[in-house]
Amino acid sequence: DGGITQSPKYLFRKEGQNVTLSCEQNLNHDAMYWYRQDPGQGLRLIYYSQIVNDFQKGDIAEGYSVSREKKESFPLTVTSAQKNPTAFYLCASSMGQGPGYTFGSGTRLTVV
Amino acid sequence: GQQVMQIPQYQHVQEGEDFTTYCNSSTTLSNIQWYKQRPGGHPVFLIQLVKSGEVKKQKRLTFQFGEAKKNSSLHITATQTTDVGTYFCAGSGGYQKVTFGTGTKLQVIP
Questions:
Q1: pLDDT digits (tens, 9 = 90+) for B32-41
Q2: Helix (H, G, I), strand (E, B), or coil: what is residue A1?
Q3: In chain B, what residues touch A41 (CB-CB under 8 Å)?
Q4: Is A95 on the interface with B (CB under 8 A)?
Q5: Alpha-carbon gap, residue A68 to B65, rounded angstroms
Q6: Interface contact flag, B33 A101, Cβ < 8 Å
């Protein structure tokens, strides 16, 4: 079955450590996205990529970094510069003009 | 930048009552999408509207896109407990990048 796999589902890290969240898709989608969701809030765009080896900052890119070396993979690194990293992180992909995004099941990151 | 607001933020209804959520954009949209996120889950794509004044139905769900393409609504007839979740609209003003609304959390009381 085609889909998006995010791992791990839950992640705990100490403050000051960088952490990388995995996102893999086998849908042959060109575009991939990372969103952050805080409790009771909407989705805010961190980074997106429309093509391999190219990506753009979203609305809240500070403290995050990404890479897109393969079409299938779009990992997100939460760096120690991110002030409030504890959140639910969602990866999504889409084919060209859509319609619609396919989301992964998310990673809940807790920084203590 | 583009902003997409939804109202209400929360809605509690008795099972069998109707429910409507409204989505308003600060700019004209090329299309609007709707998603449902169950508690503890991830957003799932429901539908996309593209044309001005478009109305689409999915069983008990009716989606509308405003004439000016700046607003949209989702109406659920005779809610059921399976409708519980948060409903998001997402507007696109250009190629591929969409802005998600703030969401409406629906609680259905049996």
A1: 999 999 999 9
A2: coil
A3: 102-103
A4: no
A5: 35
A6: yes
